[in-house]
CxC3 like cysteine cluster domain-containing protein (Champsocephalus esox), 619 residues
Amino acid sequence: MTTLLKEEEDRARAASSRSRIRWVGKDAQGCPLKRRDRSGATCRRTKDRLLPTGRPSHSCNPEGVTESIGRPLIFVCINGRYDLHLPKRVCNTCHYEWTPDWGDLIRSGYWPASVNGDTLYSTDVFKSFEDLKTVAPGLSRQAFLQMLERRTKHYGRTGKIHGDVFQRSFLEYMACQYECHKMMCEEPFSCPACTPKMLAVSVDGNRKQYRFRLSQRIDEPLFKGPFIMEDSAVTDFVDKVRTNTPGKGTCGTSQWSAARETARKASRLDEEGLEVAAHSTKCEIVWSGRNLEGAGSTAGEEVEMVNSFLSRCAITTKYMTISARNDMLTVHAMGWNRRKQENLHVVLAKRYVKTITMLEVETQKMKDTCEELGCPEDKVQQWVNDVRDWATNDNTSGDNQSLQRSIEQLFLGLCQKKACLYRQTGKRRKRLREEKTKLFAAIRQYNTGQPPETEIQEDEVERRLSAEQQTTDSLIWPWEVQSDESVSILAQKKVFDAYMGKRRLVEERAIIVREMRQHCLYLRSQDDKIRMQMQHVSCGGHSDMTQEGRDGLASLLKKILADVDTHIQHLSSAYSLAIGPNAPQWPDDSVENHDQDSDISDDSEEDPDEDITHTLPPP
C-alpha cells in the first residue's frame, strides 16, 4: 500500500512539473526554447543540425536516399559559432555512402582549420576580417572574436572560438589566396603608375615595428620574401652597406642621430622631417628636393604614408611570433596596395588638377618677384646659375674660419633641437638656453672689429630661432656674401626659389601625365597576360591540376579580365575629364613604342602652357 502511494505521488509530481513548462519561441537555429516558471532560466530542446553543403546527384533513385548525421564539428561564420554535424547520405538501392570530403567543403565556401576537420571556418568570415584589418589596422583578433562570440550568445548559442586556431587558419587562407592571385596574373606588390619606370625611391625606417620577446617559438613564415625580405638577404645587404658607409649620420655641418645606421636606441630618432629646419642654406640649395632637377613635387617622405598605416598594425603584431608577425604585415601590405590600385586613377586625376592650379599661382608669383627685384626675363637663368655657383663654392676665408664654423654649427644645432618633438622636457630646455648663450657670445665676438655692413644682426638670428616664427627664408651669413657681387645674393636667392617652385610644378605635370600613361599601359599589359593565360589553360596547360581545377581557373580568369576591362574604362574617363579639352580621344588601336616616355631632362626648359597630353596611350 505504501509503495503504491509513493508511485502515485511521483507520477503526480512529474505531471505537475510538465505542466509548469511552457514553450516561448525558437532560436536562430529553429530549435524551440522553453522557460521554467520558478527559476526563469531558458533552455533549448536539443536537436542535431547538419552542415549546409552541396549534395551529390545519385542516379539510382534520388528519392530513395537516407540522410543522417555524421561526426560533429565546430563551424564559425560571421554570425558566430555553431555546433553542427557533417551530413551522411546512404542510397537505399545500391547502399552507396557519401560524406563531404575536403574538396566538397572548400567548394561550399568552408576552410578547414586542421587535417582532422574538427573546426570549419566560412571564407566569408576571413574576408570580413581582412577588410576590417585594412580599414582599421589596429583591430586585434581578440576584439574580432569577441564580436563573433557576442553574436553567438545573441542568437541563443554558446561556445568559445579559439584565437590561435583562427589566426593560423586565416593566414593559411591568405597565403593560398596569394598563390591563386599569382596564377591569375595579379601583382599585389607592383605599382601600376611606377611600372616600368620609377621616378624616385624613398628610404625610411619604422621603429614602431618592434616585437616583444614573449614567444621563443620559431616557425617558418608562410610568405617568404614578397614584402619582408628573408633574414639572409637582409644580412648580406647590411654587410654591404657597412663596408661603404661609416654610419655616423652627417650632412655637411649637421649631425643627425636618425641617420646612424648602427643605432640601437629609439630615442632621438624622430628627426627625419627636419631637413629645412636644421640644414645650412647652401646644403638646402644643393640637396633639397625642391631644387633637384626632375624631382617634381616629390617630398622624399612617401614611405611615411605606408608607415602611417603599418605603424597602427604594431599594436597587435608586437605580441606575435616572428613568423606570424611577418605574415600579418604582408597581409596588411597587400590590403593597402589593393586599396591603392583601386583608387589610383582618382588620385592621379586630382593631383593633375591640383598641380595645374598651383602652377598658375607659382607662375604669377615668379613674375611678381622678378618685377619687384628688377630681374628681366633674360637674366633669370643667370641669377639661378649664380646662386648654384655660390652654394657649391666655399667662400669662408680670413682668420675667423673656426669662429664662423662654430657659429654655423651652434645655429643649426639649435634649429634642430627646437624642432625636436621632446624639447619640452626641463633638461632639454636648460641645454637649449646654454647653447643659445654660447651662440650669441660667439656672434658678439665675431662682430667685434667688424664694419657695420658685415656684422651679424642678433635680432634677425633671434627671430629665426623663435619656435613660434619658423620661416622658410634662408639665413645667409655675412662671410658667405661675395664682395664683388653687383646684385645681392639674397635678391638672387628669392628669384631662385620662385624659379624652382615653378620649375618643379612643370616637371610634376609631366610626371603625372607619364604616370597616367604607365597606368593605362600596365592595365593593357595585364589584359594581354590574362588572355594568354586563358589560352594556355584552354590548350591543356597546368597538367598538374584536375579538369575541375582548370575549369575553375578559367572562370576566375574570365572574371578578372572583365574587371580589368571595366577598370580601364573608368580610368580613361577620369583622366580625360581631368586633363580637359586637350585630352586625347583614346583611339582603339594597339599601343606601340610604349617605352618612349616623356623623360624629364635636367636642362629642358618646358613652357607651362605646352601641350604634353600627347604622351597618354589609348585605353
Residues 459 and 465 are 10 Å apart (CA to CA). The radius of gyration is 35 Å.
